[in-house]
Design brief:
By secondary structure, the protein is α/β, with parallel strands linked by helices. Helix content is 47%, strand content 15%. It has eight helices and seven strands; from the N terminus they run E-H-E-H-E-H-E-H-E-H-E-H-H-H-E. Strand 1, helix 1 and strand 2 form a beta-alpha-beta unit. Helix 1 packs across helix 8, helix 3 runs parallel beside helix 4 and helix 4 packs parallel to helix 5.
Length: 252
């Protein structure tokens, strides 16, 4: 299916995991895809492999966003789809999480999404509108004692998405903005977070979180399908919505 031949997409954190799976699906449907990441060597390699473009993008730096969008404008002439996917996860409860980790998590997961929306919106408006998908999490809706920083950031994405969606609609930009709330997927982010625990803590955390997912751990492609739906015209009456893709975790 090549129904996205006229679409130009930018995916932050696109060098691996859900971002990479989304890039592949968009390319398969004809879109021109730009991967932004800080993993430059890996990003260059995967972009060449799948037929995407790569650019360095530290989502916490407004100057990086401006450079990325300017480059897309110069080379593609427009921007119609943005996936604010880049994120980090660090585990800790109120006693163990440091102020530095808490602040960094907010900078990447929340401020990075804000900047992606803010900087991309003018070019998307000039391009006739489009769709932004902000990747939140089930932990932006429910939580666990060891995800204080992560839940704060992802809950912020959930609420902020609604405000941005209302703003862009009120100003007749033609841009829809929705959040997606994945459950546990087989990605480096989940594996790296669990690696912060010792074996006993990791097992206990996994049993009460991942272990309670009725459908088990997702493949990144399963999350990517839902993101592509929100980017496509199939969801053209959705803005400010939250789409939960969690294998039944929040239904338990």
């Amino acid at each position: 299916m090549n129904d996205m031949n006229d679409q130009v997409a930018l995916i932050s954190g696109g060098a691996s995991g859900i971002g990479l799976a989304t890039a592949k699906k968009l390319i398969a449907r004809g879109a021109s895809v730009w991967i932004g990441d800080i993993q430059d060597a890996q990003g260059e390699t995967v972009a060449a492999d799948i037929g995407a473009h790569y650019l360095h993008l530290d989502v916490t730096q407004e100057s990086d966003w401006i450079s990325a969008v300017d480059r897309i404008k110069d080379q593609a002439g427009k921007l119609t789809q943005v996936v604010n996917n880049a994120g980090i996860a660090s585990l800790g409860n109120l006693e163990t999480v440091t102020t530095e980790v808490f602040t960094k998590t907010l900078q990447v997961n929340l401020v990075g999404v804000f900047l992606g929306c803010k900087v991309a919106a003018p070019l998307m408006t000039q391009s006739g509108g489009g769709s932004i998908v902000n990747v939140s999490s089930i932990f932006g809706m429910v939580s666990d004692q060891y995800v204080i920083a992560y839940s704060a950031s992802k809950g912020g994405v959930r609420a902020m998405t609604k405000a941005i969606a209302l703003d862009l609609n009120a100003r007749a930009t033609g841009i829809r903005v929705n959040s997606i709330h994945p459950g546990f997927a087989d990605t480096p982010l989940v594996g790296d977070a669990l690696a912060e625990f010792d074996a006993g803590e990791a097992e206990a955390f996994a049993l009460r979180t991942v272990g309670k997912t009725p459908m088990g751990v997702a493949d990144p492609e399963q999350i990517a399908r839902a993101i592509v739906f929100l980017l496509s015209e199939d969801s053209n009456y959705m803005t400010g919505s939250e789409l939960v893709v969690d294998g039944g975790y929040t239904a338990v």
